[in-house]
Amino acid sequence: MIVYTHPDCDYSAALKEELDKDGIDYKEVDLKLNSDAWAKVEDLTGGERITPVVVEGENVIVGFKGVG
Predict the structure, then answer these.
(1) CB 32 within 8 A of CB 6
(2) Residue-range domain boundaries for the chain
(3) 32 DSSP assignment
(4) What does the pLDDT look like over 25-36, one tens digit per residue?
């Protein structure tokens, strides 16, 4: 699982906290540190710069619990 996050996004923090609490392994891509990854996020979201974005196999989830 890949999780695209941004440090200024409260929903990114909430998602990471939940994943950590549940013991779910993930690779975090911090978009502040990896600004080139915004192009991938825009591709996954249909052109939007929004976080968090979770990619697990073919599944893409934008936001956290419907918000983000």
Answers:
(1) yes
(2) 2-62
(3) T
(4) 999 999 999 999
